[in-house]
What we know:
CATH class of the largest domain: Alpha Beta
Radius of gyration: 21 Å
Bound molecules: NADP nicotinamide-adenine-dinucleotide phosphate
Number of domains: 2
Oligomer: single chain
Structural class: alpha/beta
Number of strands: 9
Strand content: 5-15%
Number of helices: 13
CATH architecture of the largest domain: 3-Layer(aba) Sandwich
Largest sheet: 9 strands, mixed
Helix content: 40-55%
Amino acid sequence: MKIGFIGLGEMGRPMAANQLKAGHQLTVWNRSAERAGPLVEAGASLAASAADVAADADAILLMLADDHALRSVMSAGLLAAIKPATVVVNHSTVSVAYARELSAAVTALGATYVAAPVFGRPPVAEAGQLNIVLAGDDAGIDKVRPALNAMAKKCWPFGAIAEQANVVKIAGNLMIASAIQSMAEASALVRAHGIEAGGFIGMMTQTLFATPVYSGYGSMIAERRYEPAGFKAQLGLKDVELGLSAAASVHLPLPIAGVIRDALLDALAHGGGDQDWSVLGDVAARRAALDGRRARATW
Length: 299
Ligand code: NAP
């Protein structure tokens, strides 16, 4: 297949690299062109603009930060350049409202739009083991199956209405954020009582919470290892806010998401926006002044 790939951040680079490994012809574009270097060395072509990616692509794969990034790339000429035979596959985590809008705009051109947000961090993307949530036109999905297979452990179909894949992705991320926040608070609790967080997290993640989300983020919190970020706190905040706005649109309160949004704002206010979103561990510790305590006071 001729694949165009736009957005070569932490996730986009390994996902694009897997297209090359699968033998597809790859053209890439990224706002900061230098990030394309290793892909070009491995055989990809570098397009001069996002619109140029659309010139000859069977499928255009998008892995951009957020609604704003996609809007700016689309309005800078990409949307106008999409051809009717092309399938646009949007892997970015975007709002439900924007997914609906973009799907309509692409479909109006006679082209096909597939929403394909992903679960898995950069090392999972590198291993070609992402879980990809899919929604959109069946024929379009079949056409891009070879490209999806190059990146996925499994594709999970959720029907024909594209933005429903984004609802699933956003709801899943709220579950991950809740897991991180609960470990952050529980770790602060044990530390405040003089117990080392590593032993506590180790026990819980080898017993009742033996799953990748708890063990992966749990060890980052216990070791206070927030760099390099696999998923930046600022993107985590974006996703929690996507959940809150998707919920507000159907008059659904999400009280836990509100608490996590405020904790992420706290992290950003303290300069943690580019750290991993497990920096919520430090937010909980800071609220208890754990690092400033000289001796345990008794209350
Ligand atoms: P990232 O490393 O921050 O990369 C963001 C990408 O968006 C870069 O290519 C960046 O270009 C581009 N971009 C940002 N603003 C732009 C703008 N105004 N115009 C054009 N391009 C712009 O993020 P990531 O971790 O790869 O995440 C990408 C998407 O995947 C996000 O929607 C995220 O929520 C989702 N996701 C991430 C993970 C994860 O663990 N990291 C997992 C699942 C899903 P530059 O290189 O020029 O900055």
